[in-house]
Amino acid sequence: MKQSMVSVTFGCGLVFMLAGWLGASLYAQNKIALTPPMGWNSWNYFGCKVTDADVRGAADAMASNGMKEAGYIYVNIDDCWQGERDGQGFIHPNSKFPDIKALSDYVHSKGLKLGIYSSPGPKTCAGFEGSLGHEEQDAETYAKWGVDYLKYDKCSWRGTVPEEIAAYRKMHEALAKTGRPILFSLCQYGDDRVWSWGASVGGNAWRTTGDISADYERMAYIGFGQNGLERFAGPGHWNDPDMLEVGNGKLTDDENKTHMSLWCLLAAPLLAGNDLTRMSHQTLAILTNREVIAVDQDPAGFQGFRVAQEGPLEVWVKPLSDGSKAVGLFNRGYTPATVTAYFKDIKVAETAAVRDLWLHKDLGTFRESFSATVPRHGVVLVKVRD
Ligand code: GLA
């Protein structure tokens, strides 16, 4: 951790950091994403096949299954909604999305918000129309439709780093010009140290990695790889290790809990990526555990970091606004193991109370350390208060 702080300061540059802080404070003033955004995105489950009906289905589910009350608000259409531009250059949706204004009204009628997707390049990753040369027109169109969130995905865009920064800033300015608060989510896979300039171009979040997939290895590689980026995140501007795969693929309940715990410790955006109309009770319970979500949504907005590692066993901590610490005891190995969090590592006093956040259970008062048996690929997530 220390090492990365040093390389940040003397590496890519103080200038970027200052720009980042400036952007961050401007964004905090705009009151967008003061805590990490929560919602759903179509890509991880529906991919390019997504339709208007799928998005309505997700909105219906989110509004009625307890997710909305737990904080999930954004219903985001990813790639593959775009049709052709008209003679004036305005974008129209394809036949899978007959009327985005009507869809947006529907989503808003449920007390939710609508997100959309585009690219600074000529084409999106799936080969649909991007926004290059049409930034203002597209921003205007999104605002007219009632869009609340834009994921802006690099895809076919090519150029130098300063040009890339300018391309993202251009869309931010176009969005700002509409007067509609639209959360701006940068997606360029963590290239070019985006965390050092993302906030300065108006980013409320920026992807820090390539795409996630619904398997433990990829999810763990991404999630546990976030250590060191914590100083770049805060209210209004978040590191984004990609959308959730909870409930997708063959992830076990323990793996899903690891995924969710890690993303919450990381103060990551929580965008569910499964089919909300067909999920198990256990998946829904994992997505909606209030005490776990509260770690992600803590108003202080600190991103957690690793404090100890021994082979496949890791301890991560996230300082919370009430002075307590959220602590994740992770076992990345293949057999159950005892993981110990030492209080001096997590910076709490010699004696502290421990509460299990998945189980909603006070575990008692401990001296110097807390140990737990953690299943393979599993986690014990606790709150430690001295
Ligand atoms: C990229 C992004 C994904 C998704 C697809 C859509 O791969 O990283 O999250 O948006 O494009 O084509």
Outline the structure in words.
The chain has 386 residues and is α/β, with parallel strands linked by helices. It has two domains: 12-296, Aldolase class I (TIM Barrel); 305-385, Immunoglobulin-like (Sandwich). Helix content is 33%, strand content 24%. The chain has helices at 2-10, 14-30, 43-46, 52-64, 67-70, 100-109, 135-145, 161-178, 216-224, 253-265, 281-287, 290-296, 343-346; strands at 38-41, 74-76, 82-85, 91-93, 113-118, 149-153, 183-187, 205-207, 238-240, 270-272, 305-310, 313-319, 325-331, 337-342, 351-356, 361-367, 369-374, 379-385. Strands 9-8-7-6-5-2-1-10 form an eight-stranded parallel β-sheet. It has a six-stranded antiparallel β-sheet with strand order 11-12-13-18-15-16. A hairpin with a 5-residue loop joins strand 12 (313-319) and strand 13 (325-331). The protein starts with a helix and ends with a strand. 51% of the residues are buried. The model is unreliable at 1-25 (pLDDT under 50). The structure holds alpha-D-galactopyranose. The site of alpha-D-galactopyranose has 9 residues, from loops.
